[in-house]
TrEMBL record:
Name listed for the protein in its UniProt record: Flagellin N-terminal domain-containing protein
GO CC, any one term: bacterial-type flagellum
Any Pfam family the entry gives: Flagellin_N
Domain Flagellin N-terminal per the UniProt entry, residue ranges: 5-142
Taxonomic lineage of the native organism: unclassified sequences, metagenomes, ecological metagenomes
Provenance organism: marine metagenome
Coiled coil: none
GO MF terms, alphabetically ordered: structural molecule activity
């Protein structure tokens, strides 16, 4: 009995080309489906390194933007409270000037001015003690 090896070189070449093309097609399909040029280190180590650095930088910038937006919101909260304080202090000044006019004010008028001034000062203290952003008190002096 003799052994005989039959081979079809053109069929083998065709098979090799089909396998090569199938692998290339799968790789291209993976890139298309993910939307990324680089899916793993084998796609290009240098490109992967650059890509990872850019991702890290992007994540850092996104966090910086979030932090800035939170800071702006905190400042807006403090500004609104300080506007209220300013309004109350202007009113307190007007009362003090009115109360200083002893020529036209009697005792009852000065007592009424003093009570209103006490109310304004209580309002100022309440605003200063209770203004907060999240759990951080902004105007109570604890951050000085």
């Amino acid at each position: 009995m003799t052994l005989r090896i039959n081979n079809n070189v053109s069929a083998l070449n065709t098979h090799r080309n089909v396998v090569t093309n199938s692998l290339a097609q799968a790789k291209n399909l993976e890139k298309l489906s993910s939307g990324l040029e680089i899916n793993r280190g084998a796609d290009g180590p240098a490109k992967l390194q650059i890509s990872e650095q850019l991702r890290a930088q992007t994540a850092g910038l996104k966090q910086a933007i979030d932090n800035t937006e939170m800071g702006i919101s905190m400042m807006q909260t403090a500004e609104a409270a300080m506007d209220e304080l300013s309004r109350a202090l202007v009113q307190a000044r007007q009362l003090a000037v009115h109360a200083a006019n002893t020529g036209t004010n009697d005792e009852f008028m000065q007592l009424a001015d003093q009570q209103e001034l006490d109310n304004i000062l209580h309002e100022v203290n309440t605003i200063a003690k209770n203004t907060q952003y999240g759990k951080k008190f902004l105007l109570d002096g604890s951050r000085a």
